[in-house]
Amino acid sequence: xxxxxxxxxxxxxxxxxxxxxxxxxxxxxxxxxxxxxxxxxxxxxxxxxxxxxxxxxxxxxxxxxxxxxxxxxxxxxxxxxxxxxxxxxxxxxxxxxxxxxxxxxxxxxxxxxxxxxxxxxxxxxxxxxxxxxxxxxxxxxxxxxxxxxxxxxxxxxxxxxxxxxxxxxxxxxxxxxxxxxxxxxxxxxxxxxxxxxxxxxxxxxxxxxxxxxxxxxxxxxxxxxxxxxxxxxxxxxxxxxxxxxxxxxxxxxxxxxxxxxxxxxxxxxxxxxxxxxxxxxxxxxxxxxxxxxxxxxxxxxxxxxxxxxxxxxxxxxxxxxxxxxxxxxxxxxxxxxxxxxxxxxxxxxxxxxxxxxxxxxxxxxxxxxxxxxxxxxxxxxxxxxxxxxxxxxxxxxxxxxxxxxxxxxxxxxxxxxxxxxxxxxxxxxxxxxxxxxxxxxxxxxxxxxxxxxxxxxxxxxxxxxxxxxxxxxxxxxxxxxxxxxxxxxxxxxxxxxxxxxxxxxxxxxxxxxxxxxxxxxxxxxxxxxxxxxxxxxxxxxxxxxxxxxxxxxxxxxxxxxxxxxxxxxxxxxxxxxxxxxxxxxxxxxxxxxxxxxxxxxxxxxxxxxxxxxxxxxxxxxxxxxxxxxxxxxxxxxxxxxxxxxxxxxxxxxxxxxxxxxxxxxxxxxxxxxxxxxxxxxxxxxxxxxxxxxxxxxxxxxxxxxxxxxxxxxxxxxxxxxxxxxxxxxxxxxxxxxxxxxxxxxxxxxxxxxxxxxxxxxxxxxxxxxxxxxxxxxxxxxxxxxxxxxxxxxxxxxxxxxxxxxxxxxxxxxxxxxxxxxxxxxxxxxxxxxxxxxxxxxxxxxxxxxxxxxxxxxxxxxxxxxxxxxxxxxxxxxxxxxxxxxxxxxxxxxxxxxxxxxxxxxxxxxxxxxxxxxxxxxxxxxxxxxxxxxxx
Amino acid sequence: xxxxxxxxxxxxxxxxxxxxxxxxxxxxxxxxxxxxxxxxxxxxxxxxxxxxxxxxxxxxxxxxxxxxxxxxxxxxxxxxxxxxxxxxxxxxxxxxxxxxxxxxxxxxxxxxxxxxxxxxxxxxxxxxxxxxxxxxxxxxxxxxxxxxxxxxxxxxxxxxxxxxxxxxxxxxxxxxxxxxxxxxxxxxxxxxxxxxxxxxxxxxxxxxxxxxxxxxxxxxxxxxxxxxxxxxxxxxxxxxxxxxxxxxxxxxxxxxxxxxxxxxxxxxxxxxxxxxxxxxxxxxxxxxxxxxxxxxxxxxxxxxxxxxxxxxxxxxxxxxxxxxxxxxxxxxxxxxxxxxxxxxxxxxxxxxxxxxxxxxxxxxxxxxxxxxxxxxxxxxxxxxxxxxxxxxxxxxxxxxxxxxxxxxxxxxxxxxxxxxxxxxxxxxxxx
Lengths: 935, 431
Known about the structure:
The structure holds two protein chains of two kinds.
Chain A: H1 2-7, E1 21-30, E2 33-39, H2 43-49, E3 56-57, E4 64-65, E5 78-81, E6 84-88, E7 99-102, H3 139-149, E8 166-170, E9 174-177, H4 181-192, E10 197-200, H5 215-229, E11 234-237, E12 240-246, E13 250-256, E14 263-269, E15 272-275, E16 280-281, E17 294-296, H6 297-307, E18 314-319, H7 322-333, E19 337-343, E20 350-355, E21 359-364, E22 369-371, E23 374-378, E24 381-382, H8 386-390, E25 396-398, E26 403-405, E27 413-415, H9 425-443, E28 471-473, E29 478-479, H10 480-488, H11 494-501, H12 514-525, H13 529-532, E30 544-545, H14 546-550, H15 563-568, E31 572-576, E32 579-584, H16 588-597, E33 600-603, E34 608-613, H17 617-624, E35 637-643, E36 649-659, E37 662-667, H18 672-686, E38 693-696, E39 701-707, H19 711-718, E40 719-720, E41 734-739, E42 742-749, E43 757-763, H20 767-777, E44 784-785, H21 788-798, H22 832-841, E45 846-852, E46 864-867, E47 871-882, E48 887-894, E49 904-908, E50 914-919, H23 931-934
Parallel strand pairs in A: 1-7, 8-14, 9-10, 9-15, 10-11, 15-27, 17-23, 18-19, 18-23, 33-44
Antiparallel strand pairs in A: 1-2, 3-4, 5-6, 5-7, 12-13, 13-14, 16-24, 20-21, 21-22, 25-26, 28-29, 31-32, 33-39, 34-37, 34-38, 35-36, 36-37, 39-43, 40-41, 41-42, 42-43, 45-48, 45-50, 46-47, 46-49, 47-48, 49-50
Helix pairs in contact in A: 4-5, 4-9, 6-7, 10-12, 16-21
Chain B: H1 22-31, E1 50-53, H2 57-70, E2 75-78, E3 94-95, H3 102-116, H4 118-122, E4 133-137, H5 140-155, E5 161-163, H6 165-171, E6 187-191, E7 195-196, H7 199-212, E8 216-218, E9 223-229, E10 232-238, E11 241-244, E12 247-250, H8 256-261, E13 270-279, E14 289-292, E15 297-301, E16 307-313, H9 325-338, E17 346-357, E18 364-367, E19 373-377, H10 387-400, H11 414-417, H12 424-427
Parallel strand pairs in B: 1-2, 1-12, 2-8, 4-14, 12-19
Antiparallel strand pairs in B: 3-7, 4-6, 5-6, 9-10, 10-11, 13-16, 13-17, 14-15, 15-16, 18-19
Helix pairs in contact in B: 2-7, 2-10, 3-10
């Protein structure tokens, strides 16, 4: 016991409402030194009990800062706890073994050399940095590196682990934000009226200000808590905050420090939101109001009654309200010498507080100077209207109450308690009871919304700023003098002064300082507080970790059904959008040769596949593709190119007609989602009368391409019900049949690789079976798998452009060199007007085949084609060494005057060297006549 | 204090300015003498030679260059709110010129050059920090685009190069450059001259500079109509009275179509919200601007330690400037995909601005069929970084009535003639 007394000289004897467990001492470190506290302590209360008065240094002037509000929103108590920065020390509960350190101090909290800034304060007022370091510009980086050292934040490390965070959806009828007496009562009333209720409280325990009240308050607190515990329709979340209210009462609630997660984001679609956020006590602006030992009355009452901590020994109290008076009584009760109570209601005032590391004396309005180590202010209350603002409210200022009140809210948001008006606990509870019942009624949709009789605004002295200048924004070190000079320089609206001085932009986000800032500004401009208005409160109400917002990352990787096989056979993975694909199994050039000479197989499952059905499919195809589709016989496939309305190539692929009214459209792998949206967009918004059903089938089929001169021979061994004879199943046709014993497989004969090839689409669940069977049965034919890289080489040898690689965001269809496919004689199709213009202008860069004169040089893709010193006349879009030709081959864009086959162009390599390349006759470098694939 | 603030104002032309400097800070600090207003408030005059609608960086820069470069000082800048209340104060303050088309590179490079000397020109520190700009490539196609941009930039004399994951790790030790990342980083376009700037300071600096030349800045003055007689602009109607003028410049964003509608000029502009967010400060660790187009996110850290995040525009048109929960969820997920050790950093504030998107992701600048009505609109997500060059060009256009070469391709008629400019590739998320 005596040890505790030594370690905690400011700890009081047991208090009636204390939340600490004296039987559970905890040890922790503060700036390296061992300290002790109790379970139930906040970090700050344990430190205060052990005699700590200075918790941090201020942002700009490095003034020592102590406790101000002793709540989550205390600006002077942001601490580094282990690897976590910016921990709210006056809120976070103590845990055994915590390593706690002050932030923004150097070399130490006690002696901070940057406190020298205070001496030069008059030269570095608000916005001083805009007025210097203009010239020479070279000094700016040096200045910025100095500024960076002043950053008030905690530290992170690249080695910090990514911790576990979670998310949850909730569908309550009523969410009550704030569990003071009003919030609890509203929740109870709503539950009794049949609503499912979520009651959310920012602090660790329910009860709001009752917790630090007297005997009567405590009795009521226990009564309310018992009722909550007995009400099964209320889910209680403590240490949780409603941080955002978005359209449609979509609420973001953050639960902190759960057993299984650092934080959890609860997303709730509430039928009705009851805002019972209470009131936040605001600081009083006077000289020295940020000296450690100057505290708000609520801070004092929390320290004494919740944590049994003596806030000081000799106090002066400034009180404008009964809560201030109660604080003075609390102080007297625990034996603090209350040397003077200055009653604002009687015209008394505080002029200045003096002291360095802690307050030593105050000066009063009558000239009296009183020595003390604690100054308590109770100057008034700010309504934390953040959630109301997010619901569209513009709170109105009521001068006689010295506060803002809600004005207009949607029917699904109801304020109650202190935020809604003024009254004694009974009055607030009566209002909350009516509000809770009405919330339940509205949630159930029972009749018209009924207005709840408003609480009175109440009366309170307008006592924001005293007769001396003091701190307004404690996080940002912005004083009333700064605001005044900013207004004088023309930054005289609330938004401009905020941006110029950064007032209200710190971690507390204006909760303590907004109204004081507005009061200073209105005094400077001669406008009223109501005319000046406040800045917009933006979400979140309280900061949320990136971890909680991100939650578990739900961005699944997509694999084909054959992925296990690829992994087992040493495939190198390639990230392709959402998909992981085999890039290669060994040497891609060898894979190419095997396809060209024997037979290969590639997994092309990511190809987009849309099942289109209905009588209007041909009209749809005619509208979306640049070529013609009205005469596609059953059993045929056709290649098509799609353009956006600007004529820019959007996607390409083949579409086959499987039956009278049934088509299968394939898209590029990367374009699958875009094309689906594109098709649906046209059908739903432009052509809703067309009868077309669209079913995305991309993952419904496992797709594989069997390519090479022996592919037919291989398929003959495993195919039933399809005559593979070239006469019966020619190039650019589709057949349905049984492959490897699997029914309902589609095969189409197309030739992306330039070889005889069959693209097989098998029901996905049998994909691996079909794949393995083909490899098994084709072993003697020399079948080998090939990856994306080999396919890219072969398509380049064949001169097939890849949309997005050999076209770009500017490439209109004629520029892709596919004039043969563009049918401008069609009535209409997406992009037609732009393509007509393009053809008429005839001034576009066009895609051509290119071969470097020196076939051993492969110009890297994106190498520019140039003329003169730096005029860009084209670029290489694709380039590879061709294993088939033994030379480098390319596709690329060239300016109109370089289109002709045989033209020699200059390619500038990224290393600055220049080479010459020749424009070829066709895009295809290998088998331009297409003999092989038609075989 | 008097809002009229006629400390040292002359009705027309120049006024003696209180020059900003370290020395002046010192002497005024010693004497405790207050600084004069950075710009003055005026009564609305019945006529001006030029009326600029929109008191953002574009409008104020146009006014400044009209006065500074062309001696046209009888100019009014009108804003319905406070200056810089629109996109100028809502963007993420990134400046760069690593565009894709040679025209785009030249245009934005001119802007970077103007930004580089803006503090000195305006005698107002706009804190342009050329800390470097990284655009990450997570797949081979975006890596190819990065190379393309690097090659075009190099040929245009702009410093850009593709760097490896190892180089990225050296520049940004927090970046997860491992191959096992969900979106592995294959490389990046590094653009050393890119960086960040204090966006409000640019607005205030131009306002102060324009004011010093005699330009009138009218805040809280909403335009309610524009009068046209025989296809010529004659007057502007505002909530504070009417102004006779032969020249009206539409330098608005978000509501630009509503202003153009007042004279019957139709523009192919659709307005989308663009969201952004900022965290609490943590000790500075990120020196460069990091952009990932694939992940729709960009990140920079202010000198104060806050991380500033942005993304691509929302996928729907709206005039709403409220943030959404989905946005910060996706944003946080993608930031952590890049820098997993930041999970404990807290998001402090989110907001949105409005972006006027055109079909070709390029602005509309120049004269219109209505004589005297000029457009500087359609600035999408890239308006802030183009502020200086736009102001300079618009001023030249108004003063000379000849369209400067550098903005010639941005004329309104291109949409009717099918001459779209293409910057989609570099502009859509490339901040």
